[in-house]
Amino acid sequence: MSKDLPSLWSNLPMAPIDKILGINDQCKADTFPLKVNLCVGAYRDEKGNSVVLKSVREAEHRVIGKKLDKEYTAITGLPSFVEKAIELAYGRDGDILSTDCIAATQSISGTGGCRLMAEFVATFSLAKNRKIHIPSLTWPNHITLSNNAGLIPVTYKYYNIQECRIDFTGMVEDIRAAEDGSLFMLHACAHNPTGCDPTREQWDELSAIMKAKRHMIFFDLAYQGFASGDPERDAYSVRKFVQDGHQIMLSQSFAKNFGLYGERTGLFSIVTASAEEAERVNSQLKVMVRGMYSNPPIHGARIVVEILSDPALKSLWLSECKGMADRIQSMRLSLRQKVEAGMLAATPIDGSKSRKNWSHITEQIGMFCYTGLSLEQVLRLRSEFHVYCTDDGRFSMAGVNESNIDYLSHAMVSVCMT
After folding, report:
1. 247 and 90 Cβ atoms separated by less than 8 Å
2. Residue 220 is among the residues annotated as catalytic for this protein
3. 224 with 252: CB under 8 angstroms?
4. How far apart are the C-alpha atoms of 83 and 100, rounded to whole Å?
5. If DSSP codes are grouped into helix, strand and coil, which group holds residue 330?
6. Is residue 300 a contact partner of residue 260, using CB atoms and an 8 Å limit?
7. Chain segment 136-184, per-residue pLDDT in tens
8. Does the predicted model carry a pTM greater than 0.85?
């Protein structure tokens, strides 16, 4: 390059560090031997190692053994994967609706599905005043991808930070106050970052209210099977809304529940009124996908199909889902008990500092624990104890294990008591 010419990129500003991955990078660079990484939502075993499920290993072995080609998939993905993914989320054909009424395309994991939703809504001006209503606390990328598609994220009440529980009354108030036909994003299960979901009775009430308001519903289903250990239970909200007549949009991720993080396997689907309507919606999804990434990757989709098509493999996968969920729930209970014991032991005789309730640790579900720690406490965890979590105090519970839980609970007690 000629030194006489200025660089075309000389005025390009530095982008801000990703709120989650940036902290994870800091943790990786930390050489402290007892450091604890609670940033990224990826499952770890009891020794802190990444995990490839046995069902996935076996399915992958079978897929490779078939010596399949590496041709492009169809624009909307591997047809057998689309079929199996729809069944996993919505139930068997005919249970609550005919699958012929569902338009669907394989997506670049859950993020890609969310992005397709935003692009679809923006392209056809389906959102009232271009607004998408998202929970007051949500995965930061929901905001980014909505903005990038030209939508305007606005928040509705979801979580009471002081009481560490869902603000259901406030949530209902905001849903009722929104203009009829507004677009709402809902976390189907294992809400990120709080881990707090509505009860079944609350989902029933939300469905009725939102139907009366004719709101447009988008579900982000990133943790089916991983949240409770039971994919059927975790799909309750989605199926309830469909059963009640909502024409929902849905993004599914196969990262957490199948451990296919790097395979980028997902599905975006839209419930329509008829097979003919689904065909028209699919035609537009094809145009959209073609212009964004042409077609999706194939390997992860083949693995999912292999597992969900074989009763024995599916049974193994279900047991592994439950195993992951059970281990995380066990760590929740242990962490709560150790923090509560530590707080009690460190509290002055007058009890002035022992009033914080830690029951929310075990009441929450899924990958994350929204601890309620302040930013100051989080920064102290990072600087003094080399414990890395997001600035809002969200812990990835998959990073907690028997070898670090005593150190972690001690660090939590220390920043809360001094």
Report:
1. no
2. yes
3. yes
4. 10
5. helix
6. yes
7. 999 999 999 999 999 999 999 999 998 999 999 999 999 999 999 999 9
8. yes
